[in-house]
Structure formats: structure tokens, C-alpha cells
Design goal:
- By secondary structure, the chain is an alpha/beta fold.
- It has three domains: about 45 residues, no CATH class; about 210 residues, 3-Layer(aba) Sandwich (Rossmann fold); about 290 residues, HIT-like (HIT family, subunit A).
- Helix content is about 35%, strand content about 20%.
- The protein is built from 18 helices and 21 strands.
- It has a ten-stranded antiparallel beta sheet, sandwiched between helices.
- A hairpin with a 2-residue loop joins strand 11 and strand 12.
- Helix 16 packs across helix 18.
- It is elongated and about 85 Å long.
Amino acid sequence: MTAAADWAARIAGGDRRAIARAITAVENQTRDAAAVRAAIATRTGHARVVGITGPPGAGKSTLVSALVKALLERGQRVAVVAVDPSSPVSGGAVLGDRIRMAEHQTDERVFIRSLAARGHLGGLSRTARQVIGVLDAAGFDTVIVETVGAGQSEVEIAFVAQTKVLVCQPGMGDEVQAIKAGVLEIADIFVVNKADLAQADRTERELLAMLGLRKPRDGATAWRPPVLRSVATTGEGIAPLLEAIEQHARVAAPSARQTAGGAPIEFRVTKKVARLHDPRKAFELVEIESEVRTDPLTGETARICHFAFPARERPELDALVAGTQPSCPFCPQRIETVTPRFPEALVPGGRLRRGEALLFPNLFPYDDVSAIVSLSRAHFLPMDALPAAIIGDAFKLAREFIQRTAPTLAAARSWGIVTWNYMPPAGASQVHPHLQVIVTDAPGNALRRELEAETRFLERHGVPYAQALGVAERGRGECLVLEEGAVTWSVPFCPVGMLGDAEARIAGRSTLGECSEAEIEVLARTLSRLCAAYARLGMWSFNLTFFPDAEQERSGRHWLTVRLLPRFYLHPHLHNSDVAYLQLLLGEKFGMVYPEAHAAALRQSLAAA
């Protein structure tokens, strides 16, 4: 029996000692941690995960104890993960929550574990998700997660819990205002605990008023977060709270379990801390953090470090544009005479046209079927003023070409890939805006790896990865940038570029050929807005690539993805590239900006339009 199989058997069998050891292994990342993760990988998704969060002194632990008692009366097995503040000396948990739940310690139906936050912001321990996975695999019906009382920073509970309960206390006053931008946005149920105290009515009114301003998450209107009252010390209000939790489970379970249960999306971050004597601070001993993130789909890593670099310099584009126009092969005065034509059997007339867009063969082809789309008659279109109509016509022309030529390939499977390299930092050989389109049976290593991982995800969880990721991102709320219709733009959890990137997913569509005219127009419109937002942030070049599935694939495993990567010269005078050796030689993504901060900057730039 392998180590993973041994762990799996003991955890599933309810061996409390094995469960405790497994939690210790994943919490401290011991040599058994990998075997434990392998043991539980396919055995989670059954437990209901309830998050209890709120400011210090609200009575969360007492409320949790009362909930455990009520769940036991209903015949459930219950686990509690109590994330305690860390001891500043040992780094271990203070264990106050376990003390307050002592009445359940000897009950075999209950498992209580305290975790040390160890300075981790966001309300959860770094390993809380894996601990929950162990308890889920052990067969507990409900896992209650109580977070550190850290106020508005406790938004990480949205990552792991299907139902989030915010516990408040009467007389919070300004504290209610303080939580508005954080926990208020992720909570599903609000509880005014200690409701026998004065000012409970006022706190309830303030919460109801703020909820009236809250934008529904995930576009859902079926669930309106209730504001309940409780006196946890006497058990008053616990039954209505439990009923609200179960009602929310019935309403939200399909989408919630895709994320936290049946189709788990794990946003895994490993913090790195370098200690050095900093000459910038009179050689004071300092700690400098970096991160290694793990891609939720492929398991590949991305490294995020902070380096000082010169402010980005936007060159004088007028001179650059004017100097390239006389010899441009895509301008109206030359395009008809210097660009090639396709054979009539492949493309009648040799070229395709739509609006200002013209499609013709690539004189330097990348594959058997390779084309260029010149977007416009204008030699230059500024990044902050790329017309949506022109972009849309070019995408529609690419779609027509792919649909026309894909059946001509001898291969059983073919991919239609569209790329746009805008301006020199992106590798563009011409200033004139143009797309490259290839129809190929060799889709590239990155796309192939992604599709293989999505196949495994669909087989294991029964939903497309993109759908589950969308649910997780909406619950998380930090990386979403722009939504319209079926198109959602977000910033990837693992960035590709040094200063970040963005990606759009078109819901339910696997290829460009499956997209309707209206969906392409929405994509073009949102892309135009996003390019302008990047331009306001000082960018002036980008790479854009469509990641489709095979034209013949009908499994639904993949949603068409469009990735936008801003490009720049790291230091123009030294000709530094914005591509790190880590990417080229070690195959590791590398970024210099946290994706969450990048998404916030994009949202702010969009709002400034």
C-alpha cells in the first residue's frame, strides 16, 4: 500500500489520530504533506463549509459552540477549524477558541482544531484550505471555519466557505462603516450577536441600510442576505441562524459547490521571506517578501517579486509612425500590389474583406494555413482609441477564414488561433495594426497543457474549469475587471507578464467560430475599453492571443480565452527586455506586481474614462 493510500484509508475510516497527524503535516508542510494531499485529492466535496467571521469581541466562538450543539442534535458530524491569533513568541495558536468550545472536546462526533494565523493577513491561516480538505475527506458533514477577528481584512473566508456568516455586536458604530468595503461584500448571512444589549436595533438598521447598497454578486437575485439576531450564551436565535444557513445551501449550493466542493479552485500562495541588512536603511536588518503562486489548473508556478525599476517611458510615437508609413505594405496605396493572394480553391478571390479589414496570406507563414488581417486603412491607431467596430470586423473576418479553411486540413483536429502583436515592444514587424491567423494541427505547448488539464478537471468534477473559476473569482472579488454579456475580463492569479496581464473568457463558447456576431462585438467593445485603460496606465504595446479548443471538439471542457499581455521596455536606454530569464530558461511565469493590485489599477483606470 502506498503512503497516500494508507493515509486515505485511515482518514476515511475516521481515525482521529491519523486526522490530527494529517492536519499537522499539511499545516507545517512536513515530509508527509504531499502524501496527505494526494490521499484527499479525490475525496473532497461532500462537507458543507460554513465560515464565521467578524470583529473581535462579537462572540464568534460562543456562537460556533452553539451551532455545533444544534448540528449534533440534527445527527451531523461536525468539524471546527478555529484560526487563532499567533503567539508572538512561539508562532503557535493562543488556543482561546478551543477553550471556549471545551464542552464538545470529548464528543466523538466533533473534531476541533485550532490553527495559528502566524501573521497571515486575510483572516485565515495559509494552510486552512488544506486542513479543511482533510476534514472533508474524513467524512464530516459540516466544517465550520472561524477566522481571526481582523475586521475588514477577513475576505479570504470567501475562498473556502460556501456560506459566510458575519457576526456583529451592538454598538459597533463606525466599525460598521469600516467593514463596508471588505467583509460586507462577501457575507451571505449577518448576525447581530449579544442582541440582549442596548443598541442592537441600531446596529441591525445600519446593516440593513448598507445591504440595500450592496451590488448582488454573480448577478444573482435569488438570495438576499438576512440580518438575524442571537444571544449565543443562551442559545437564542441559533435555530433561525441554522435554518438560514441551510436555506442558503439550497439556493447557492450549485454554484458554491463548484468552487468549494465538487470543483475546488485552490488559490495557493507560498510566501518567501529574505532577511538582509539593507544599505538603504543604514544596514538595518529587514525582511523582504516575495511569493510563489501555483496555477489552480495546471499546477505550474509563478514567481512574484518586487524590484525597483525606472518609470516607464512612452516614446515619441509621431516620429516612429511617420518614419514607417512610406514603406508600409498594409497601407491602402500598396496593399493590393505587394501582398499575396490565396489559391482560388482555398479562398475564392484570393482575399477576404469586411469593412476596412482585409485578409490575405502571410508571406512568411507559420503553418500550412497562415493569414494576415490588416485592420484598417489608417497606418496607426492609438492604443487609447482603438475603434471597437474595426476590431470587431477583423475578428469576424478571422472567424470566417477559420471556418472556411479548417475543413481543408488533413488532420482530424485543427485549431484556429488569432494573434495581435501591437507595436514594436510586442514584436510587431509593422506599425500598421494587423492580426495573424493560423489554422493548425499543432496548437502549441501552453494551449495543449491547458486543454489536457481542463479535460482532467471536467472528468473529475463534471463542470468546465472556466465555469468553476468564474464562480471562485466572483466569490473572491479581487481579480475581476470588466463584465459585459458573455464576456468576462479578469487578471490571472498567476501572471504571465512582469507588470501583469488580463484575460477574457466567453461563457459557453469553445472557439471563435462558435461565437455569434453579437458576442464578437461585445468582445471587441470590452477589448477597446481595456486597451484604453492600459494606455492610461502608461502602456503603449501589447500581445493578444486567442486560446481556443479544437474546431472539432464538443466536450465543453474549454471556454474560449483571449489573453492580453501589455509589453514595454524595462529600461529603454539599456534595451532591457520585459521578459525574465525565469520565463525563458526555467519556464516559470514571473511578475513584479501582485495580480490583485493590477486588477484594482485596471478597474480604477476604466472608471476614469
